[in-house]
Amino acid sequence: MTNTSYSRIARNARIGAGLNLTLVAALLLSVTPGPASAESKGRYEFEFTNVVDSTHGFTGFQSFPSINNKSAVTFVASRNGTGQGVFQMRDGELTTIASTLDGLVNFGNEAPINASGVVAFTATTPTGSLAIFTGDGHTKKLIADSKVNGLLRLGVGAPAINAAGTVAFSSIRTDLGSPSSVFTGNGGPLTAVVTTSRTGFGSFGNVAINDAGKIVFSANLSNGVQGIFTAPGTPVDIVDTNTHPEFGSFGDPVINNGGTIADAAFFFSSIGLEIITGNAKGITPRNDPANPPFTDSEHPSLNNHGAVAFYAFPISGTSDPTGIFLEVSGGHSLIPVIKPGDSLFGSTVNSVDLGRFALNDRFELAFQYTLNDGRSGIAIATFHGAKEGDDDQQ
Q1: Which UniProt keywords apply (predicted)?
Q2: Percent of the chain beyond pLDDT 90?
Q3: CA-based angle 105:108:110, to the nearest 5?
Q4: Could you say which of 3.40.50.300, 3.40.50.720, 2.130.10.150, 2.40.10.10 is the CATH number of the domain covering 43-370+377-386?
Q5: Which of 77, 80, 111, 227 could tie 57 with a disulfide, CB 3.0–4.6 Å?
């Protein structure tokens, strides 16, 4: 593990010497899936870069940092002299997107960033409403306000943002009967993409949006079926508990620019889960649920090459695996990235976490960590593929 200079991301010399990232991605995705189990990390090259940590005036790092293809990382934390806020780090330069100095408090755990460096985030305003904003460190734009837009304050979901700056989110409304909608907005009036009804959708989970404006969302139907759907237009059913009765529920999905979705699917009759990717043609399992037996996960990240990364954790008292995993082959050949007990930055990892927008097309994973020596922070794990000379990479 390499601890590069504070908050500056080192590049792999082999990539810089001639292989472009598209070729590297193609090579990674051509790896033949191995046994359906977590493979030894020793076979793979990862470079770990410390983006920011608690020795630099930060505390209270939230769990879900985000990263874009320019390696800009956004995170929510508290900073000396600033208070809690949303921050961006790129090439060693720190930018404050928003903070308590702006009169905002209680920032949400997730602050996704788009290709241009615009960040979407939630916070409580001085009037007590919950609002969704976008910002780049220079200006902020109000997307939605729970009081102004008639949204239930506690029912506003986490935002997602695409390259055009369009934000998507779900929310319960304050109208009679407490209906819910999936909305999009970009600073003007909100657009309701789908809405609950007595015979259709009954409720929505969190959503994601790609650069073409396609939205993926989890939903409960009025007949009790749960599923993952895409919109706008007539909603497309990607997977549901009726056609896949082995599943009982789903997590918060993501979608890439090719229209592929990823999510965690939880089993109905047993403890366990399957990370899945898919589209209207069907779904693909990205892990073998029996080997290793993951018991819980929050959600996966997905890049435009179809690679997935996710954090899985065991039920207390079990010996099931925990940590961050990466799957690049299109099958279920998992690569362990980092876990509690691993060495990192001169100490030992106590815990790690990964959000929904944490894996970019450079195969960089932004994650939150705490160490046994008391430090905490945000880091990037860069995947450089199988080690040279490894016979198993063919």
Answers
A1: Signal
A2: 77
A3: 145
A4: 2.130.10.150
A5: 80
